[in-house]
Amino acid sequence: MSSEPTPPPSGRPEELPALEPVKSVIPAQSAPAAPAGVRPLTALLVVIAGAALASTLVLWQRLATIQEQLARQSADSGTQAIEARTLARQAHEQARDAVAKQAVLETRLNEVALQRGQLEELMQSLSISRDENLLVDIEASLRLAMQQTQLTGSHEPLLAALRTADQRLARTPQPRLARLRAAIARDVDRIKAASVLDVPGVLARLDELVRQVDDLPVLNAVPVRTSAADAARKPAQPVPPARPEWWRQWVDAVVQEARGLVRVSRIDQPEAVLLAPEQAFFLRENMKLKLLNARLSLLARQVDAARSDVAIATAALHKYFDPASRRTQAAATQLQQVQGQLRATDLPRIDETLAALAAVGAGR
Question: Residue 274 sits in which domain range?
Fold first, then answer.
C-alpha cells in the first residue's frame, strides 16, 4: 500500500500526481502455485488498498476544497482588514477633524460668551448712565424751580417742575424709581396745602396807596374856600327866594369871612400843628417813597423790610393826616390789610424729594 502525499502548507492545493498502475511482478519463471488460502487474502488486500485509495482521493478532494475555502476566506479577511484599516484611518481622521472643530467651536463659544458678557455690561452701564442722567436732569430742574419760586413768591413753578419730573419717571419702568415718585407725590400735596403770599394783590394795593397819597388832607390844613369860579363849575341849584333885606346878606358874608379866619380843632400830635404848608409836599413824597420801598422789598422777597416800611407809612398817616377824612380812613384800612397780608410765610420746600433723589442716585 502506497503512502499518502503530504499536502502543501498554505495556498491553493497542488495538482495530485498521477497514480501509477500497480503492476504485479510476475517472475518470468513460473512459480509454484500458491496455496488456496493465499488468494482470498490477496484479493482482500487489493480491495482494502482500493478502498483506502478511494478514501484518500475523497479526503484529498475535501482537503483541497477546505484549502480553497480557507484561501478564499483568508483573502476576504485580508480585504476586510484593509477596508477596516481604511475605515479606521478615516474614522481617526474624522475624529481628529471633529476634535479640531470642537476646539474651534469652543473657542467661538467662549468668544460669544465674552461678547455677550460685554454687551450685558454695556447695556447695564447704558441703563445706569441713562437713569443717572435722568436723575441729574430732574434734580437740576427742581433746583431751578425752587429758585424761581423764591424769586416770584409763587409755588406754581415748583409744582410744574414736580409734575414734569413725575411724568418723566412714569415713562421709565424702573422699580427703584417708585420711591422717588411717592416722595414727589407727597411734596406736591404739601405744596398745594401750603398758604403762599399773594404778591400781585399786595403790589396792586401799594400802587393804589401811592396814587392816593396826593389826595390825603393833612391834619392842620386850612379848609379850602369855594371861589366864584368853583361855584360856577358846580351844577345849577334852585335859586332860593330873595331875602327882603340887603343888610342880612352883608352880615352873612362877614360871618363867613370870620369863620375862614379862625378855626378851632383838637390836634393830639404837636408835630402836625408845626408842619408848614411847604413841608406837606415832602411829607407826601416821603410817604410815597416808603410805600415804593415796601413794594421793592416785597419783589425782593424781603417781607420783614416791607412790613417795616408799611408800618412807618401807617404811623405817618395817623400822625400827620386828618383821621376824620374818608380818604384817610380808606388809606388806613388798606394799609392795615397790606400789613396783615405781609406775614412771614415760609416758601414750600421739597426736602423729601431731594433726599429720595440722593438715595436713588447712590443706589440705595
Answer: 198-222+270-344
Residue 132 maps to a domain: yes
Same domain, 217 and 278: yes
3-class SS letters over 107-169: HHHHHHHHHHHHHHHHHHHHHHHHHHHHHHHHHHHHHHHHHHHHHHCCCHHHHHHHHHHHHHH
278 and 141 together in one domain: no
* pLDDT tens for each residue of 272-325: 555 666 777 888 888 889 999 988 888 877 888 888 888 998 888 888 787 888
Q: How far apart (Å, rounded) are the C-alpha atoms in residues 168 and 194?
A: 25
205 and 167 within one domain: no
3-state SS string for 19-79: CCCCCCCCCCCCCCCCCCCHHHHHHHHHHHHHHHHHHHHHHHHHHHHHHHHHHHHHHHHHH
pLDDT per position as a tens digit, 206-224: 889 889 888 888 776 545 4
pTM of the model: 0.43
In the chain, the number of structural domains is: 2
Is residue 339, in this structure, part of any structural domain at all? yes
Decide if pLDDT at 16 tops 50. no
